[in-house]
Amino acid sequence: ESVETAAATATPQFSWADWLLGVLRHEPAHALTLFYLGVSALGLWASYWFFASFGIPVMDYMDPSDYITVGLRDPIYLLIVALAMVLMLVLNFHEYARDKGPAYYLQMRGRWWGRLLLPFPYREKSEGLLQFLFGWSGFSFPTGLLFGVVWATLWLTVWYVQNKADDIRVGGGHAVRVTLAHTHEAQPGTARLLGTIGDFVFLYWPEQKRAEAIAVEEVGRLQSLPAAQANAKPAPAAVHAPTTAASVPPPPTAKPVAAKPAH
Fold first, then answer.
1. CA 201 – CA 214 distance, rounded (Å)
2. CA 43 to CA 34: how far, in whole Å?
3. C-alpha separations of 256 from 95, 195, 259 in Å
4. Alpha helix segments (H runs only) across the chain
5. How far apart, in Å, are the Cα atoms of 197 and each of 12, 49, 85, 146, 159?
6. Distance separating alpha carbons of residues 178 and 213, to the nearest angstrom
């Protein structure tokens, strides 16, 4: 029993972070796959809230292929996911170095960037408040950090797309002039291009405060317009003074002269 107890005590606690890092060391290509899945999931989340701001249920218009490409339509999603991953690694480095032991911790602190990431001397782990009160240690630091970063990323993205939608409502965004496939003349007014998916084009008309989805085959042409031209109002027609006969005085008429009788 003492041998089994010692073996159980010596068994290190499972950590998903160590497991994931081990998998990525053996198969670095999985990192690209995880990054792509994260971008696709974030793009789907952002698209839902963006189009919901205009009353469009975009999920009802999507094909299965749109779910895996929606995150690539805006480069900001790539940047947000990359920054979230870097932030999680930087904040988690303190816990990772402490798990490696005092020697590794001191070695990392000897480097210039290590002093920034490890500002405090090495300390052994102590019981947390949850473990002291309830006997449950709670989430590990990497798990709690992951949940915190994911939660912040999701709502930061919602704030970004709602600001983008508000800017479109007041005249910003990508202005286009729309010509339908069965007509030769452009539609009156200018629309704002909200986005496209496989089979539909989403437009917003600022004058009518109306959003709509048009099938791709129904759109003949989308002409991009500069912001100055899109927001310019038509010039009022010039007012010309009416030209009537009464406005111009008639030339004076000569009085007839009576002829003198001949003698």
1. 5
2. 14
3. 119, 83, 9
4. 2-10, 16-26, 29-52, 64-69, 75-100, 102-109, 112-117, 129-134, 141-169, 227-231
5. 49, 16, 28, 31, 22
6. 13
Whether the predicted pLDDT of 10 surpasses 50: no
Taking CA atoms, 165 is separated from 39, 88, 231, in Å, by: 20, 29, 17
Fill in the DSSP letter of residue 140: -
Residue 194: phi and psi, rounded to 5, are -80, -35
Encode pLDDT of 79-92 as tens digits. 999 999 888 888 88
Q: Are 178 and 189 in contact (CB under 8 A)?
A: no
Give tens-digit pLDDT for 122-147.
Answer: 877 665 555 555 544 556 667 777 88
* Beta carbons of 179 and 185 less than 8 angstroms apart: yes
Q: 143: which residues sit within 8 A by CB, 6+ positions away?
A: 16, 17
Retrieve residue 13's tokens.
């606690």
Q: Is 215 helix (H, G, I), strand (E, B) or coil?
A: strand
Work out the average pLDDT over 223-238: 64
CB 30 within 8 Å of CB 21: no
State the DSSP H helix or E strand holding residue 219, giving kind and residue range, or none if neither: strand 219-224
DSSP secondary structure letters along 27-64: -THHHHHHHHHHHHHHHHHHHHHHHHTTT--GGGT--H
Residues 47-62: tens digit of each pLDDT = 999 999 999 999 999 9
HSE at residue 195, side-chain half, CA atoms within 13 A, is 24
Contact status, residue 174 vs residue 47, Cβ threshold 8 Å:
no
> Does the structure show a pLDDT above 90 at 192?
yes
